[in-house]
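Structure ticket #2291
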Amino acid sequence: MKAYYHARAGEYDDWWLGRGLHADRRPPGWDEERDRMTGWIAGLRPARTLDVACGTAFLTRYLRGEVVGLDQSDAMLEIAAERVPDASFVRGDALELPFENGSFDRVFASYFYCHLETRERARFVAEAGRVASELVVLGSRLQAGERPERWDERVLGDGTRWQVFKRVFVPDELAAELEGRVLHESRYFVMVAAP
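Resolution: structure written out below.
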């Protein structure tokens, strides 16, 4: 998974924006739903926030307050630092966060929790709880006919093929799993906060 996202850095935003290999793969209303979702992020109260697996900072830029982005990929972090110069960026492992207990008010995880298998989920939630009092998870909402857990084949612009574990969520089930509450849900997205 780490190697895939490092290799994907230069084309990561294409998925959000419906460009390149994703130009013909956006479902109806995607742009409007994406813009609505970024409004949810901007609407979170300002806080000292750790954005875990921040990638290119496509969503990090909407977080308010003092923001630290963490990613395992130097290629992602290089793009992120250019995009959000007022934030700090750190290379590190999300399952072993390189921060002291209580360093943040919030851990924000967009499209990261959805790639964790069972044992990794427990480790991540424990680490998030160690460094912050709130965890906010953003992911994709389960669509009709879709399997909630699966291994997807992903193809990059250079033709390489990767197997990636992926989960999509039922809002109330994700909230129950995290012992939190649904902050927002829409046709394609769900955001849950856990104390």
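Closing remark: The two ends are 28 Å apart (CA to CA).
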